[in-house]
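Methods — Computational structure assignment.
A single polypeptide chain was analysed. Its primary sequence is given first, followed by the predicted tertiary structure written as structure tokens.
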Amino acid sequence: MKLWTGRISKHADQRLDDFNSSIAFDSRMLEEDIRGSMAHAAMLGACGIISQADADAIAAGLEGILADVKSGALPIDMQAEDVHTFVEQTLTARIGDAGKRLHTGRSRNDQVALDFRLHLRGETARVRAATLALIKVLTDKAAQYTDAVMPGYTHMQRAQPVTFAHHLLAYAFMFTRDVGRLDDAARRMNRSPLGCGALAGTTYPIDRAQTAAALGFDGIVQNSMDGVSDRDFAIELVSALSVLMMHLSRFCEEIILWCSWEFKFVELDDAFSTGSSIMPQKKNPDIAELVRGKTGRVYGDLTALLTLMKGLPLAYNKDMQEDKEAAFDAFDTVLACLEAFTPMVETMRVLPDNMRRAAARGFINATDCADYLTRRGVPFRDAYKITGQLVAGCVARGLTLEELPLAEYQAACPQFEADVYDAIRLETCAALRRSAGGPAKESVEAQLAELRAFLSCADKAGK
């Protein structure tokens, strides 16, 4: 039986039932629905709105339903309109009239808003933990490669020397911001809408603060119309997930390049690679490619939510039933990506010698060569031109700056001396970039310390 049959006299057309039903996706909120109902029943009993005996019977009945669903003894009825209907009707069938008193002072509008917040709070915690696990892997891996020189790129052209550790930590810090965005959104979400009713609260003397505290909220939503119609929290969380996916996708793009024979900076473990159905030599970075592709899917979920909400007047509208599938899909997708991506990065083999060779062939020490002359009194613009001419000559002859004879340096500018080779050595070039945030070892060690402190604080905050 529908919960709304009092006003409607005809039986619903089966096509309406099928179109209207949401249990196929909102059944995943069953535990949150039961937890919310238990808190609501306890409050009703404490406030004398229903008898304490009925409140106790409701609590025991709900605990039994949850236990039976978890054990498999009670299958969810997929013919029910939604998870709320299934729980209430099962409860009433088990404990009788007391079950019919559960919905006193409550609407499905505030009930679903509550369940949705509770569920996304749990999902956010899972994604947060998975992101922290990735940051830890990146931090640990970076610590192993603080001396591994590689080319840093701008415009996809070799630009200046960095280290592999420095490069990995750039992504690690991106992911710390993702954790911050999730935390900020979760904090704003953590207000209870229970007690907002359909839109105008209730005439019963309920205690909204009691249910909010019982369910771990920081307080209540202050306006009842806002409480049932707000989906900012879902939009904000999926927006944070979209940025996280953008960071993952950028990283995937680099890993895909690094795996190619043209770069060969890393090699993915066989357990996280696939082959070709026709080309036996192939080892494909499918996980990275899939994560890159699934980024668009999460963007689509965000667009769906924004579009869903953009034209809705206050308060609740049935359109809002469409919020859950998009949000659930975004969380499921991001979690799946993190759980595949993190061990892929953890197990990939780094090839520092290949990185060093690429750095040497890219003339990424040219700026340091010009700086060498500048420190000897040559105006920078002249030093820049002299170095550019030396690079052009090296390119024409297939040499690197480190291989160019000293006589040719001195022919270009007499200020060059034998110590130029130490100045343009790639390891020296990286080591001298000691400014905060740079690739020098001491700077990278400071970044590692900051990330370890972040992980320690974030881990404590999550408990």
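Note: The chain has 20 helices and four strands.
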